[in-house]
Amino acid sequence: MPAIVDKIAEALHLKHHEDSSASTAAPQTPVFDHEKVKVFFVLGGPGAGKGTQCANLVKDFGFCHLSAGDLLRAEQNREGSEYGELIRKYIREGQIVPMEITIKLLENAMRAELAKPHDTEGWEDGKGRFLIDGFPRKMDQALKFDEDVCLSTMVLFFTTTEEEMLKRLLERAKTSGREDDNEESIRKRFRVYKEQTMPVIEHYSKEGKVATIDASATIEDVHKKAQEIVAKILAGEVGRNITA
């Protein structure tokens, strides 16, 4: 880990937990067992409706929804965060925050959720279900998360046109209060998405782990498609790429 990123991680209290499960693991052994902990990456361009559909799937299947962007925004606003301004700069410029920070935030959030009592399906006997929204955005993030944290189960890829995404984001900007919800930042995010995130989709597609969902329709129609696909994946009926 580069020195500056190491310092940031330490300041953010993101150093690896020295508990028994981590300290006894062999190098490169993920923190969580993918047979018990199911991780669905939720990807799509800015404004594709990822957050909305995640909220629906949480209700349907008892997932814990983790948004990488929300975790970073919370950290940048956390009182006493020495590097909050640095994270803010990355987000404002539409750039990707150093992956070590994002991955540790996700790992810590997963660990905290798994420690809570749950009475819903998929959480018994140390099991868990996670929707990770807006991550991974680069190949190195994808590989490091799979190797160090938990091997992912599937990618839910919500796709629509750039014109539709821009329209949705500009509408959201009226009430969101987000620094990056302006046309200049949005267009930067589109460029970064095309250059860095699409190769992630191609990588997982080669592994047969991408469920492509057309997000151009109404929220209800997209939800129905996503619901049907996730139900099949959790039932073990899908082990390849699928399109809806």
TrEMBL record:
<dbReference type="GO" id="GO:0005737">
    <property type="term" value="C:cytoplasm"/>
</dbReference>
<dbReference type="GO" id="GO:0006221">
    <property type="term" value="P:pyrimidine nucleotide biosynthetic process"/>
</dbReference>
<dbReference type="InterPro" id="IPR000850">
    <property type="entry name" value="Adenylat/UMP-CMP_kin"/>
</dbReference>
<comment type="similarity">
    <text>Belongs to the adenylate kinase family. UMP-CMP kinase subfamily.</text>
</comment>
<dbReference type="GO" id="GO:0019205">
    <property type="term" value="F:nucleobase-containing compound kinase activity"/>
</dbReference>
<comment type="function">
    <text>Catalyzes the phosphorylation of pyrimidine nucleoside monophosphates at the expense of ATP. Plays an important role in de novo pyrimidine nucleotide biosynthesis. Has preference for UMP and dUMP as phosphate acceptors, but can also use CMP, dCMP and AMP.</text>
</comment>
<keyword id="KW-0665">Pyrimidine biosynthesis</keyword>
<dbReference type="GO" id="GO:0006207">
    <property type="term" value="P:'de novo' pyrimidine nucleobase biosynthetic process"/>
</dbReference>
<dbReference type="InterPro" id="IPR033690">
    <property type="entry name" value="Adenylat_kinase_CS"/>
</dbReference>
<dbReference type="InterPro" id="IPR027417">
    <property type="entry name" value="P-loop_NTPase"/>
</dbReference>
<feature type="binding site">
    <location>
        <begin position="134"/>
        <end position="137"/>
    </location>
    <ligand>
        <name>a ribonucleoside 5'-phosphate</name>
    </ligand>
</feature>
<keyword id="KW-0547">Nucleotide-binding</keyword>
<feature type="binding site">
    <location>
        <position position="217"/>
    </location>
    <ligand>
        <name>ATP</name>
    </ligand>
</feature>
<dbReference type="GO" id="GO:0009123">
    <property type="term" value="P:nucleoside monophosphate metabolic process"/>
</dbReference>
<keyword id="KW-0808">Transferase</keyword>
<feature type="binding site">
    <location>
        <position position="73"/>
    </location>
    <ligand>
        <name>a ribonucleoside 5'-phosphate</name>
    </ligand>
</feature>
<comment type="subunit">
    <text>Monomer.</text>
</comment>
<dbReference type="GO" id="GO:0016776">
    <property type="term" value="F:phosphotransferase activity, phosphate group as acceptor"/>
</dbReference>
<feature type="binding site">
    <location>
        <position position="178"/>
    </location>
    <ligand>
        <name>a ribonucleoside 5'-phosphate</name>
    </ligand>
</feature>
<feature type="binding site">
    <location>
        <begin position="47"/>
        <end position="52"/>
    </location>
    <ligand>
        <name>ATP</name>
    </ligand>
</feature>
<keyword id="KW-0067">ATP-binding</keyword>
<dbReference type="InterPro" id="IPR006266">
    <property type="entry name" value="UMP_CMP_kinase"/>
</dbReference>
<keyword id="KW-0963">Cytoplasm</keyword>
<feature type="binding site">
    <location>
        <position position="172"/>
    </location>
    <ligand>
        <name>ATP</name>
    </ligand>
</feature>
<feature type="binding site">
    <location>
        <position position="189"/>
    </location>
    <ligand>
        <name>a ribonucleoside 5'-phosphate</name>
    </ligand>
</feature>
<feature type="binding site">
    <location>
        <begin position="95"/>
        <end position="97"/>
    </location>
    <ligand>
        <name>a ribonucleoside 5'-phosphate</name>
    </ligand>
</feature>
<feature type="region of interest" description="LID">
    <location>
        <begin position="171"/>
        <end position="181"/>
    </location>
</feature>
<keyword id="KW-0418">Kinase</keyword>
<feature type="region of interest" description="NMPbind">
    <location>
        <begin position="67"/>
        <end position="97"/>
    </location>
</feature>
<dbReference type="Pfam" id="PF00406">
    <property type="entry name" value="ADK"/>
</dbReference>
<dbReference type="GO" id="GO:0005524">
    <property type="term" value="F:ATP binding"/>
</dbReference>
<protein>
    <recommendedName>
        <fullName>Uridylate kinase</fullName>
        <ecNumber>2.7.4.14</ecNumber>
    </recommendedName>
</protein>
<keyword id="KW-0539">Nucleus</keyword>
<feature type="binding site">
    <location>
        <position position="141"/>
    </location>
    <ligand>
        <name>a ribonucleoside 5'-phosphate</name>
    </ligand>
</feature>
<dbReference type="GO" id="GO:0005634">
    <property type="term" value="C:nucleus"/>
</dbReference>
